[in-house]
Specification:
17% strand; alpha/beta; 46% helix; two-stranded antiparallel ribbon; 8-stranded mixed beta sheet; elongated
């Protein structure tokens, strides 16, 4: 059975997957501490009192390796997208990790760099606590895979807040007893993998194609506002546009069929509510052990309005502080 208390991870490196419908007080306190640390580092670039810096990078990937005074183990904090070079990392696509599983290429390369620094800072004692937001959540997920492969003797635990999709389902399941992706139900970023974005673009292309097809099939009504000499010219342009859109849809569909579906790392805990002053946030499992993309529940009209707000690290920190 799962032991009560975060320290059980040190005593039992083969602990079973995190299951159940509620978090213990110690687990929740660790989430709150992780969120507070990362939010402080993201906003100020520094650590709160009681923590010492062991290593840091202020360029992509932006991270800091820290240790609490008087304790063993280390914290690895990785921030989210903040500049163009971070965006380039996100756009890197996926590649094979071990010959059969897919891992986000940009996250993998960043995690390899952080791993070289971690080997210099960590003495193997205590727990490696991995914490990341957005892109940083995907990177620490990839870093967990690095640890599993290269340093199986290290004890680690990871928490991602609104993490980017970084690995296929099989890889995510491999670390589900050591990594938790905390995703607010109204944060769309965790479910926006490269493949998901291509599906969105494909749907937009199909909608545009349907509009053009409607004009081409009913030119008399569609071009009734044009002069006679303009109608033939417009019909020719729309016919060519329709052919281009059909070719674009076909090309996108082929890419989608070849692109693996990436998901957030580990097991997913969904953070619900709390965005309004009267709503208390709740943290719970999705209700099953399969790692699946979190689906946003808000309407299409409020999607853009809620996207930035629900995804911000300060929102996760505030919500967990109230949980």
């Amino acid at each position: 059975m799962w032991k009560s208390g975060w320290e059980a991870l040190l005593a039992d490196p083969a602990a079973p997957p995190l299951t159940g419908q509620s978090l213990s007080d110690n687990h929740l306190q660790h989430f709150k501490t992780a969120a507070s640390l990362l939010e402080t580092y993201s906003e100020s670039g520094s650590l709160p009192e009681g923590y010492q810096e062991l290593c840091r990078s202020d360029v992509t990937p932006c991270f800091i390796i820290a240790q609490r005074n008087g304790s063993t183990g280390v914290w690895v904090l990785v921030t989210g997208t903040a500049c163009q070079s971070d965006a380039d990392v996100n756009a890197a696509g996926s590649s094979l990790w071990d010959g059969q599983h897919h891992l986000h290429t940009g996250h993998m390369l960043c995690s390899e760099y952080i791993m070289t620094k971690l080997k210099l800072c960590y003495d193997g004692k205590g727990l490696v606590r991995l914490v990341g937001h957005s892109m940083g959540g995907g990177i620490v997920g990839a870093l967990a895979q690095q640890i599993v492969r290269d340093k199986p003797g290290w004890k680690y635990f990871g928490v991602g807040f609104g993490p980017a999709a970084s690995m296929d389902v099989s890889l995510a399941k491999q670390i589900q007893n050591r990594f938790v992706s905390t995703c607010h139900q109204e944060d769309p970023i965790p479910c926006l993998s490269d493949r998901a974005v291509m599906v969105i673009v494909l749907n937009a292309h199909r909608m545009a194609k349907d509009r053009v097809l409607k004009r081409v099939n009913d030119p008399i009504r569609a071009y009734c506002h044009l002069y006679p000499d303009q109608k033939a010219d417009q019909l020719s342009k729309d016919t060519q546009l329709l052919a281009d859109l059909e070719q674009g849809c076909s090309s996108l569909q082929q890419k989608i069929d070849q692109e693996p579906e990436l998901v957030p790392p580990g097991v997913i805990r969904q953070l619900r509510g709390g965005l309004s002053a009267t709503s208390r946030p709740r943290l719970q499992f999705c209700g099953h052990q399969d790692v699946v993309p979190v689906q946003p529940t808000f309407s299409r009209g409020t999607w853009l309005q809620n996207r930035g707000h629900a995804h911000a690290m300060v929102v996760y920190a505030d919500l967990l502080a109230k949980a």
